[in-house]
Amino acid sequence: VLVMKVPLDREENPVHHLVLTATDGGEPKLTGTLQLVINVLDVDDNPPVFNQSIGSLEENLILLVVPMMPGHIVGKIHALDADSGYNAWLSYELLEESHGPWTVGQYSGEVSTKYPLDESEGSKIQSVLVLVKDHGKPQLSATVILSVSFVTSIIAIKMDVNLPRSEESFMPLVDSINIYLIIAICSVSSLFLLTTLIYVALQCHCKAKDPMVYGPGMATLVCASEVGSWFYSNCYKVIIFFLVNSFIL
């Protein structure tokens, strides 16, 4: 007799391979083997599960621009069932309290308008309750709620999307602006400090060379260029002026 030690679940392992060995009591002992393949049949033990994230009514809010013609698809619901075969065959339907102007595809899960919609529908949020169920016995089901709000123009949708929801959502933007401002200030300060150091270094270098320029009996150092010649100290002053202007620009 083959007895199971633990329950079998088709979703975990649909097929089991076993090898049975039989041994007699003779001398020498003789044995025989038999290979068994056990296919686990499916039972309806898994309810439908929505593959998209289903949160609060605000997270599932759908904004529709009216007027709108009948047959317009406003959303699609998709669910999965871990069972197999007929038990995983899903169908969608609207609950009685949410029929209104909506209809849902029995097997597609597409929610669409049943008749024309206009401004008379108002701006109040309407709830669409969709039931999805499998075809097992007993039937297992799940529900989802979609919230639909009507607007008269696409501008209203853009304004609603761009407006900050709360002070917490606005704070990261302020923090990022402060970081960029600090980086810019540090860059400008570093550039100014570098320019000052170069200017001081060149001034010290020019003072060290002054005895060579004005010493008695020694040649005067000049800086030659296309527009004439300058004394050594004047040449460095022009170079410093050029460097300072370059960094500022």
From TrEMBL:
SUPFAM superfamilies on file: Cadherin-like
GO cellular component: plasma membrane
PROSITE patterns per the UniProt record, alphabetical: CADHERIN_2 (PS50268)
PANTHER family: CADHERIN-87A, PROTOCADHERIN ALPHA-4
GO BP term (any one): homophilic cell adhesion via plasma membrane adhesion molecules
Subcellular location: Membrane
Positions of transmembrane segments: 177-202
Domain Cadherin: 1-50, 70-150
UniProt xrefs under SMART domains: CA (SM00112)
One GO MF term: calcium ion binding
Protein name from the UniProt record: Cadherin domain-containing protein
Membrane topology: Single-pass membrane protein
Keywords: Calcium, Glycoprotein, Membrane, Transmembrane, Transmembrane helix
